[in-house]
Amino acid sequence: MNQNHIITINEEAEIMMTRMKESPKLLRKSAGKISCCIFKVPKILAEMNKEAYEPQIVSIGPYHHGNKDLEMIQEHKWRFLQEMISRTKKTVDFFLNIMVSMENEIRESYSESIDRFTTNDLAKMMVLDGFFLIELFRKVGRLVEVQKDDPIFKMLWISPFLMRDLLRIENQIPFFVLQKLFQESEPNSRTLQSLILDFFNHIVERPQEVLEKCENLDGKHLLDFFRESFIHTKKTSVTSPKKFDKTKRGLLQLIRPATEIVNSGVKFKANHQAHSFLDIEFKNGLLLIPQINMDDFHRSFFMNCMAFEQCYFDCSKDITTYVVFMGCVMNTSTDVSILSQHKIIANYFGTDEELVKLFKEVGKDVAFDIRTHYLVDLTMGVNGYWNGLRVEQGLIHCCMPKYIRYETMSTVATTSATPKDPSSVSLQIPSLTATNYTTWAIKMEAVMDAQGLWESIEPTPGAAVDEKKNKTSRAFIFQAIPEDVLLQVAKKKTAKEIWDSLKIRYMGADRVQKARLHTLKNEFELLKMKEGESVDEFAGKLAGMVTKYNSLGYTIKDEDLVRKLLDSVPDKYLQLVASIEQYSDIDTMPFDEAIGRLKAYEDRLKLRHANQTTDNSLLLTKMENQSSSKGLGRGQSYGTRGRGDRGGRGSWRGRGNTRGRGQRGGYGGYHEQKYNGKGKDKKHVRCFKCDQTGHYAWDCKGPKEKGDEANLT
């Protein structure tokens, strides 16, 4: 087309008319129908954790078909199909024709256009992927014999990845395809649903009577069926939305964090009789939550279920409700510790902080109707219990953070708090565990001091302790300690008696403290800053030692800390250490000032190292440019051969890498060169050694002078 051609309005209109007739491909216009149930995850959800939605070892369906990284299991699909054909004596074309007859329904199941697959390609994909799944379930269910050395079952690493891949939203084929192939292949003594449940029961163990309730359950695809098996077996349900009672508007909030729930007097308990992890109950101040193992499988399962519920309108949002609920309850690592102590959460995912981060990321920007979810009555009951008790808790209600009230039909469920009044301080009572007494005591002292209660623990000599503050402090401590410890100190009447009892319990008596102090002193003396360790990192270790000393009733002076810091740094800091010792008074120097000086010196070293690296890179680039420029004389370097005045047998050999006379070119340092292909005429060149014409001094054959021999040596 002529680039200078100007498109007229009529031509532009024709182009627009053509575009208007085209159907959307990335999100088909029929994607909102009830028949469309297999989705590509929206970018806004996928960018949080792309790997959660994409298969790792096997592709099922069209979205990831042909991925070269998934070829290993793809090859075994043909083996599974061949075994089934050999066993049933039915032909491949029989099953292909069945899939061709279902083509329209299959295409309608996908939100993204799959027009790139022809009718035959689509039928072949459905048969190959469908029978791979069916044969896999049959083999695990022992309906079909498994070959003795089948690597799919022999290699332990395959199983967990395979189970996660089969429950990814982008990795599905319609459930009616699986059912049709299962029914037409051979007579079966068990249902497809029972085989699927048995397969996944190897990783999510449930009683057989629970699985039997789901044997006739239907689903849109494998992910939806397995998701429905938990929803179908839960006891908790929600009726159709009713007109909301405005008097209860204040209770219509997200559930509060575990620490606040405990502070209100509500107790947690693991529900071991629940048939589904969704069965959360609240009875008479007792919050019953089924135990769940948080691992990579549940993480992947929850994220894909939530993605499905966000994309598919015609389904319940129970998994989303559960994840948002648990994310609110586990707002901090302290909340996770509370649930772990009550055997509600078994954390196989990582640290408590990583688990908190997971639930916050998964629940971020999720459309969630706070008025109609299945836990709405329970949430209002817990919040009502909290609202009823918080006035009786005295000062405790002042440290409860406020949450946004969600009242719209499509609400973004997050656990972020509303902007707080700068004059109010949000504090949380820390929970005591078997390993965190030292940090717990520091936090607890800070909280109680902020509330004006610390004088009940360390009263002013000769002053009487206020009885109300003593009772409030006692209540604070009771809410912070585990139940088994609570029962042991419950009879003590004063907060100070309880505090001293806990200190002895966790830190030991005087004799034990002395032994610990001796151990700490040895650790302190042996502590050295490692090469590559930053000043901040080493200072943090020293600060940790100070905290441990303080917990035993001893202090380390700044003077000792400064000397320890200067004596422990690597040799590269010696120049600065010497300067500090010579020009500063170490006895009066604050520890923070010493750290600041070392950090400033550390930054200067880093900057100098970066500049040297840059200079070296520039020098190397310059040398490379020189070595790559085209020489017109003889001499690109090849080792240490050649004659010349640069010593010995010369420094370079080859075809020159510079123009003109040649720098270090040819067989000598300044050897004779060719210029434009012609040798230089030396008839008029005069040697300054023998005063003869026809050669240069370095080519002179005359006797060498003593000075030359000395230079040569």
Automatic annotation (TrEMBL):
Domain of life: Eukaryota
One GO molecular-function entry: nucleic acid binding
Keyword presence, Zinc-finger: yes
Database matches in InterPro entries: DUF247_pln, Znf_CCHC, Znf_CCHC_sf
Region (Disordered): 624-678
CCHC-type domain segment(s): 686-701
Key words of the record: Metal-binding, Zinc, Zinc-finger
Keyword Acetylation: no
Protein name: CCHC-type domain-containing protein
Organism: Mikania micrantha (bitter vine)
Taxonomy of the source species: Eukaryota, Viridiplantae, Streptophyta, Embryophyta, Tracheophyta
